[in-house]
Amino acid sequence: MRDEEEIREQYEFLKEQLDDENMNHEGVRQMFTYYKRALGWVLEEEYI
Fold it and tell me: Measured between alpha carbons, how far is residue 7 from residues 24, 25, 28, 31 in Å?
């Protein structure tokens, strides 16, 4: 499994990509939203 720092970096990268004004295609936005949500769940589970 990846370490927490690597997961956080990926989470922040996806978050920035999703917030980018050029990311306006709805299908792509939805895909990034799913990835962002999944990474968030992984981070939460580590602290439960």
Answer: 25, 25, 20, 17
